[in-house]
């Protein structure tokens, strides 16, 4: 009995080793991309752009609920995905992007601002559909533990794995993430080589120029959760102000203007009512003269 | 600084010490010294506000001060767990699998609203990554750039690209047209100046010539008796020629540029140019003119001379005839 157990254990150990080796050399990522209901055109175009740029994205139909996000883990599993990008739209205007490593986490919730899609005519670059790109991260990403984690998740989700299905073997664009103003700025550039004839030549700054392809957006971290769409909060951005609060304060400012005007009107009416226009008062004033 | 805030900071410091001792402590107050180094005034204000409140969790019962406003919003930044999660999901694969490059220097944008500065920073970071990525891939012997004969579907369709190109061309043309217009405007301004200068020059020349002739005539009167100098005669003629030339030319020019006779006739009949408004309204002069009133009076008083004599006279005359 003991020998059988030993044998089985040895086989199992061996398998584990092999799988560990495989795991270490191959980057296998598939991303499920979907949105909630109530998405508007610009946000939808952004999602489409991301799908066009990243061949390992798998787009799914809109999710009906905004509350039971746990189902996303199951959905991702059904689609053989180990990552998930979920666009949560609130009030048909505020876009929150969830990036999650399904099924075990972590998951990060961002607020997406300043969306510009690829369809805009001012972005003149172009690249192969499904070509791989270079991911460029700002040095600031190494300054804080939560940023390190975000960077790692972004390399999984926004980096096209080598040999991914539908991907093309050339590199012709750069996706850059920069931290500025406590936000993460996303940019996508085409690489234009001045002299692409000599492939083995070492390059410097002057041989390459960049043209923006799009899309552009700005991410503001809200929270990082331990699990995938669940679990304890391990990081919460103290400087995040919800768009509702911002709108509220704007409304209050506007209301202040209205109140001031109404106050002035009522004051004036009171003043007019207090003026005594009877004959007695007129006579009195004449006597005084 | 108000006493409340100082108290709060003290409480916070003790809380910090506690959290340092207990490594597993999950929630700690946001450390003000981290962000204050490069923060703006607004942020400092925020930080001060936050200092006013202390997380409830971090206060032991003895330290609770009634003056301190308890802070409801607790900042969560659980660094140890974040690091652990990072270790769990970290990919240990060769570079070519991910192609992620971190820039050498952190992006430092002074004014986030300055579009040019901001985009330039992004561009520089991406460019650095592109160059380094290209060098790395070529070192590994992986194809980087697409060969010329490799055609495949692009992210943006041809239709879209023609739109972009058209827009670019349109913009270029717009800029060109506006520049042209500006140049023309300036030329016009300059041209007028030149014209005025030329006219002035011509007048000056004319004046000088006339003076010359006058001077010569005077001179001639002075030496009337002496023999006529040939040189003088020639000079005089030349001067006269010069003087006459523009005069001779003028009428021709006028004929050329002048209006047709029909037009001039119509202009004399109906009037041309000048102010049309207030032509019929009174002026100081017209209202001061009282002649019409006098004239009216005189016409009324004027007696009509009777050509027919009275009845008596007529009868007397008849009697005379008979």
From TrEMBL, chain A:
- The reply on keyword Manganese is no
Extract the SUPFAM superfamilies matched here. Class II aaRS ABD-related
What is one GO biological process annotated to this record? ribosomal large subunit assembly
Q: What is its main location?
A: nucleus
Q: Where in the cell is it found?
A: Nucleus, Nucleolus
Extract one GO cellular component term from the record. Answer: nucleolus
Q: Enumerate the spans annotated as Brix domain.
A: 29-230
Query: Pfam family example for this protein?
Result: Brix
Q: Which UniProt keywords apply?
A: Nucleus, Ribosome biogenesis
Q: Which SMART domains match?
A: Brix
Identify the PROSITE patterns for this entry: BRIX
What family is this? Answer: Belongs to the BRX1 family.
Under which name does UniProt file this protein? Brx1p
What organism is recorded for this protein?
Rhizophagus irregularis (strain DAOM 197198w)
What phylogenetic lineage does the species belong to?
Eukaryota, Fungi, Fungi incertae sedis, Mucoromycota, Glomeromycotina
From TrEMBL, chain B:
Q: Name one GO cellular component term.
A: nuclear periphery
**Region Disordered: start-end pairs:** 1-71, 237-322
Q: In Gene Ontology terms, what is a biological process of this protein?
A: rRNA processing
Q: Which InterPro entries match?
A: Ebp2
The keyword Coiled coil is assigned to this record: yes
UniProt biased composition (Basic and acidic residues): 9-33
One matching Pfam family is Ebp2
The Acidic residues compositionally biased stretches are 34-68
Q: Where in the cell is it found?
A: Nucleus, Nucleolus
Which keywords appear in this protein's UniProt record, sorted alphabetically?
Coiled coil, Nucleus, Ribosome biogenesis
Compositional bias annotation for Basic residues: 251-263, 298-322
Q: Which domain of life is it from?
A: Eukaryota
Q: Which residues form a coiled coil?
A: 161-219
Answer yes or no on keyword Coiled coil: yes
PANTHER family reported for this sequence? RRNA PROCESSING PROTEIN EBNA1-BINDING PROTEIN-RELATED, RRNA-PROCESSING PROTEIN EBP2-RELATED
The record's comment on protein family reads: Belongs to the EBP2 family.
The protein in question is named Ebp2p
């Amino acid at each position: 009995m003991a020998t059988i157990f030993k044998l089985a254990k040895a086989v199992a150990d061996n398998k584990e080793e092999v799988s560990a080796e495989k795991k270490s050399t191959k980057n296998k990522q598939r991303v499920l991309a979907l949105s909630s209901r109530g998405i508007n055109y610009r946000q939808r175009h952004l999602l489409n752009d991301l799908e066009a740029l990243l061949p390992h994205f798998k787009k799914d139909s809109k999710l009906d609920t905004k509350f039971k996000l746990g189902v996303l883990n199951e959905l991702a599993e059904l689609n053989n995905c180990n990552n998930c990008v979920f666009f949560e739209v609130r009030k048909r205007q505020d876009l929150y992007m969830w990036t999650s490593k399904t099924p075990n986490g972590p998951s990060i919730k961002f607020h997406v601002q300043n969306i510009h899609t690829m369809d805009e005519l001012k972005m003149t670059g172009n690249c192969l559909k499904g070509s791989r790109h270079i991911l460029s991260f700002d040095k600031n990403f190494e300054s804080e533990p939560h940023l390190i984690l975000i960077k790692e998740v972004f390399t999984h989700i926004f980096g096209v794995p080598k040999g991914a299905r539908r991907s093309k073997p050339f590199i012709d664009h750069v996706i850059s993430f920069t931290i500025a103003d406590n936000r993460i700025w996303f940019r996508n550039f085409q690489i234009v080589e001045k002299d692409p004839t000599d492939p083995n030549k070492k390059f410097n700054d002057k041989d390459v120029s960049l043209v923006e392809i799009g899309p552009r957006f700005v991410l503001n971290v809200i929270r990082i959760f331990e699990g995938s769409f669940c679990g304890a909060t391990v990081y919460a951005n103290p400087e995040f102000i919800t768009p509702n609060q911002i709108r509220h304060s704007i409304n209050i400012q506007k209301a202040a203007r209205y109140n001031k005007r109404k106050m002035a009107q009522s004051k004036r009416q009171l003043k007019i009512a207090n003026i005594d226009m009877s004959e007695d008062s007129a006579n009195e004033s004449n006597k005084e003269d | 600084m108000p006493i409340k805030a100082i108290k709060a900071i003290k409480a916070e410091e003790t809380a910090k010490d506690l959290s340092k001792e207990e490594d597993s402590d999950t929630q700690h107050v946001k450390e003000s010294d981290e962000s204050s180094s490069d923060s703006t005034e607004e942020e400092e204000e925020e930080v001060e506000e936050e200092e006013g409140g202390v997380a409830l969790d971090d206060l032991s019962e003895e330290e609770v001060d009634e003056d301190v406003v308890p802070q409801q919003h607790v900042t969560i930044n659980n660094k140890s767990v974040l690091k652990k999660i990072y270790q769990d999901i970290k990919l240990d694969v060769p570079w070519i699998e991910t192609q992620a490059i971190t820039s050498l220097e952190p992006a430092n944008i002074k004014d986030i609203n300055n579009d040019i500065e901001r985009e330039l920073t992004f561009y520089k970071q991406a460019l650095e990554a592109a160059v380094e990525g290209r060098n790395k891939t070529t070192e590994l012997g992986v194809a980087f750039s697409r060969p010329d004969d490799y055609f495949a579907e692009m992210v943006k369709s041809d239709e879209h690209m023609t739109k972009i190109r058209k827009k670019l061309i349109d913009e270029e043309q717009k800029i060109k047209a506006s520049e042209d217009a500006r140049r023309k405007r300036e030329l016009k301004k300059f041209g007028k100046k030149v014209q005025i200068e030329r006219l002035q020059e011509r007048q000056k020349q004319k004046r000088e010539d006339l003076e010359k002739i006058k001077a010569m005539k005077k001179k001639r009167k002075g030496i009337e008796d002496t023999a006529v100098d040939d040189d003088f005669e020639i000079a005089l003629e030349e001067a006269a020629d010069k003087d006459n030339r523009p005069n001779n030319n003028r009428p021709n020019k006028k004929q050329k540029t002048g209006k047709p006779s029909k037009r001039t006739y119509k202009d004399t009949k109906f009037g041309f140019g000048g102010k049309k408004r207030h032509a019929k309204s009174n002026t100081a002069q017209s209202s001061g003119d009282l002649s019409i009133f006098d004239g009216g009076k005189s016409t009324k008083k004027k007696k009509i001379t009777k050509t027919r004599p009275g009845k008596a006279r007529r009868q007397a005359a008849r009697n005379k005839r008979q």
